[in-house]
Amino acid sequence: MKLDHKTILITGASSGLGRGMALALSRRDNNLVITARREHLLQELARTIEANGSRCTVCAADAMDSKQSRAVVEAALAAYGRVDVAILNAGGGVAMPMNSARAEEVLGQMRTNYDTFVNFLCPMIEQMQGSGGVIAYTGSPAGSFGLPRSGPYGAAKAAGRLLLDSCRIELARSKIRFVALFPGFTYTDGLDPDEVPIKALIIPQERAVREMLYAIEREQQERMFPRRIRHLITLGRYLPDRVRNWALGRAV
Ligand SMILES: NC(=O)c1ccc[n+]([C@@H]2O[C@H](COP(=O)([O-])OP(=O)(O)OC[C@H]3O[C@@H](n4cnc5c(N)ncnc54)[C@H](OP(=O)(O)O)[C@@H]3O)[C@@H](O)[C@H]2O)c1
């Protein structure tokens, strides 16, 4: 799926990775539908997108609300007739040690990362079943196995990953392609560098945007990056649970 002359919906477009992808795609003659809650940031971004030669529809919405999310998809269809690519990227995590977390805070991570994904996933599948398209999901390496201080965030990202895996199997005969993106630590407003144990692991936003668009364009099933994060996660998956948990416990 070449990412030019397309209609592309991006959630979480007001800052960070979503904004970065919207800007990169705006230089390739696309129709962009950008959504998030902070409308003033979306309006500002829309002006740049249009100055770069693409068209833009701004739909401010809370992706935790299924009605508002469906309305965004409907607005995209009304404006451009179809959506070729949906990049479901809204979300974000905060460090949350479980010795002091309240249930509402833990569930809040699920709402911010899982609900915001599902509320767009379902209407997008409905819309793309006939015509086909690409649905990309911004997950996280933190959704691979339990990590200290990011359990609620990791659990929410893991839920999204499993749901997308099921979609890929069930809808294999459809023309919808599902791409799971797992960026490692990336400098954005959403990252607290103090929470990253090894600062050298953090990559610039431009690098992450490049990797994500590369994966979407090639319709890769999944892409975890950078390589050193992918290697650490692969190692963690192969280690016996007891050994991995001991090592992670010592790291905090
Ligand atoms: N940066 C990293 O190191 C990293 C690593 C792995 C995965 N990720 C994932 O990458 C995605 C983008 O994060 P980022 O790093 O770019 O952080 P960011 O700059 O904080 O961007 C998060 C985006 O999500 C939107 N959002 C959050 N809650 C929303 C809601 N309820 N309704 C609508 N939009 C909502 C925000 O917009 P509004 O606040 O305007 O609504 C914002 O546009 C997230 O899913 C995050 O979990 C990031």
Helix and strand arrangement:
Blueprint: E1 7-11, H1 16-26, E2 31-36, H2 39-51, E3 55-60, H3 66-80, E4 85-88, H4 103-131, E5 133-138, H5 151-170, E6 176-183, H6 205-217, E7 222-225, H7 227-238, H8 241-251
Parallel strand pairs: 1-2, 1-4, 2-3, 4-5, 5-6, 6-7
Helix pairs in contact: 1-2, 1-6, 3-4, 4-5
Structural class: alpha/beta
Note the total helix count: 8
Order of helices and strands: EHEHEHEHEHEHEHH
Radius of gyration: 18 Å
How much beta, percentage-wise? 15-25%
Cα shape = globular
What would you call the quaternary organization?
Answer: single chain
The overall pLDDT, averaged over residues, is: 97
Portion of residues in helices?
40-55%
Contiguous runs where pLDDT drops below 50 for at least 5 residues: none
Distance between the termini: 42 Å
Count of strand segments: 7
**Which small-molecule species are bound to the chains here?**
NADP nicotinamide-adenine-dinucleotide phosphate
Major beta sheet summary:
7 strands, parallel
Strand order of the largest sheet: 3-2-1-4-5-6-7
Briefly summarize what is shown.
By secondary structure, the protein is an alpha/beta fold. Helix content is 49%, strand content 15%.
Keywords summarizing the entry:
252 residues; alpha/beta; 7 strands; 15% strand; globular
Structure, described:
This protein has 252 residues and is of the alpha/beta class. Helices cover 49% and strands 15% of the residues. The chain has a seven-stranded parallel sheet with strand order 3-2-1-4-5-6-7, sandwiched between helices. Helix 1 packs parallel to helix 2. The longest helix is centred in the middle third of the chain and has 29 residues. The radius of gyration is 18 Å and the shape is globular. Bound molecules: NADP nicotinamide-adenine-dinucleotide phosphate.
